[in-house]
Amino acid sequence: MHNIALIARREYLEQIRGRAFKLSTILVPGLFLVVIGIIYLTGRNTSGAKHIVVAASDAVLADGVRSRMMDDKEMKSDVEVLTPANAENRAALVRRVEAKEIDGFLWVETPAGKEPTALYESQSSGDFITTARLHSALNRAVVKDRLTGSGIKAGDVDALLKEIDIDTRQVNKEGKEVKTNAITSFYKGYLMALMLTMTTMIYGMNVARSIIQEKTSRIFEVMLAIAKPSDMLAGKLIGAGAVGLTQIAIWAVAGGAIAGSALAAPILTGTLSIHFSWVEGVLFPVYFVLGYLLNASLFAGLAATCETEQELQMYTPLAALPVWLSFSLIILVVNNPDSMLSIAASLFPATAPIIMMLRMGSQMPPAWQFAASIFIMLLSIWGTLWFSSRLYRVGILMYGKRATLPEIFRWLRYS
Question: Please, how many CA atoms are within 13 Å of residue 397, restricted to the half-sphere of its CB?
Fold first, then answer.
């Protein structure tokens, strides 16, 4: 244990005093804030200040579309009405779009005895938000036109078409009704999963790079004079893991200080409130440690079979595969956290940490699933350590010889 503590302390101090640790501790939260700010601002201005022309043979319908578009406060558009809609007017509108005098035009045809048809032409082929809002405005205008045509007063039609907002509540484990917001629940789970993914992958790969560097410098030959290979591996895992927990603790304290400030008050209240329970606060570091040990122990063994960092890069997709798999299930997990696939993914060791964070953000899983997930991960870590320790004890002293698959199997048989 004394040798393990010494190696862990050396690994911890070496990384925590490094420039990379200091920069990442400061820059990563800053970059997150910048990204969140950009997303917020672009979300508010995604389809701002559009100059659109609504062209239709039916002037009443065109005016109805325009009024619906002007009522949409988020749209912030300048909408013109052009009637009648004929070939000459359409050619003029195309020229105006080409000259960038307008952003686009909605062309509506209402042939007698047939359903209306609509076409939107614009400068951009990817402006799906404007298209969706035009679709909604046009359909509401058509419905109003049909209802008024059947004899219903215009004021009564507006009352019938008035939208109703839906508040959302969640029934928690105690049977109490709690006000929720689907967007904030999604972002909370996504934030926890992203932080967990980033830290476990970074520090897991740091262990592998450290082994490559020490193997290249042959410092292992000196260290093996005072410590066993198993002690060296354990010390590296503990030291690098402690660095990751230290960084997360710094981020958590800084985040708590920012959350308690007046600057964050408008964001962390009302419909955008994000709150973390004590259960999430306890389980996050637990899953960090388990996810880190699983990744780091695997890549420590694989790194011992490599001669250079370039060889280690070949295994990078192996580390990213569980992340890709987990985030490919994000919509399913958030929308249906109790489905069989969501439960299976939260029990599968490679994806369990990320999926559990996503599920907790949406709906707290039952205690038995946490217990089963942690137990399976512990068994997986034990098996991975058994595999990696045998590769490690032989591979760290192998120089100038590429480790082939038959060679690796021979290493596993060594006692």
Answer: 11
